[in-house]
Specification:
Length: about 210
């Protein structure tokens, strides 16, 4: 009986201390409930993030595909435009070349026609006149006029006499002993050579000293 009394008093003392300390066992239960609620909320947020990531992942390939399709369309359009421009350029340059050839030949012929007129007048004068000196002067004027017409078209006569023989612009048709001073030089021009700009229009035929 004495032991039972002591036990009952101890239990009552523990209950009294518990009530005075604000029921610590109840606080522990409350903390546990708060922890559970926080864990549940965290789980919900994690699930939401996962759903958003899945949605972004689903939308990203479509956006990339659309961007690629737009880029391909843009480059295709540029390629077609460039191809059309090049085709137009090719046709235009071809036409210009054809026009240049025709116009160039026409210009040369037009420049030669006045010389032709002078030659005809000289022939007519020779039939009516016996003045040899006047005829000689007329022919010289025609020659000068013809040379000037050629010069205006870029054709220039080669001046090779007594110069070093150059196989790039002349052809040696003969060799003649001319002494040490004229050795390897042009001593006579059999056929005059002409340059058109910086290119040989006709090679000269010359005699070279040896």
């Amino acid at each position: 009986m004495k032991k039972e009394k002591v036990y009952n008093e101890a239990v009552k003392e523990d209950e009294k201390q518990a009530s005075e300390s604000g029921n610590p066992s109840g606080g522990a239960a409350c903390d546990a409930n708060v922890s559970d609620a926080a864990a549940e909320e965290t789980a919900k947020m994690a699930d939401g993030d996962a759903v958003n990531r899945d949605a972004d992942s689903a939308e990203q390939p479509e956006a990339v595909a659309q961007a690629v399709e737009e880029a391909v369309a843009e480059w295709k359009d540029r390629f077609l435009r460039l191809q059309a421009e090049f085709d137009n350029y090719r046709k235009r340059t071809l036409k210009e070349k054809m026009d240049l050839v025709q116009t160039g030949g026409r210009d040369v012929l037009l420049a030669m026609l006045p010389v032709r007129d002078d030659v005809q007048r000289a022939v007519a004068a020779m039939e009516k006149s016996d003045d040899v000196e006047a005829l000689r002067q007329g022919v010289q004027l025609i020659s000068q006029k013809f040379t000037e017409a050629l010069r205006q078209k870029g054709v220039v006569e080669m001046e090779l006499k007594e110069k070093e023989f150059d196989a790039d612009v002349a052809e040696a048709v003969a060799k003649f002993a001319a002494g040490e001073e004229l050795k390897g030089k042009v001593i006579d021009v059999v056929q005059t050579g002409y340059m058109l700009g910086d290119k040989v229009l006709r090679f000269a035929k010359v005699v070279v000293g040896e």
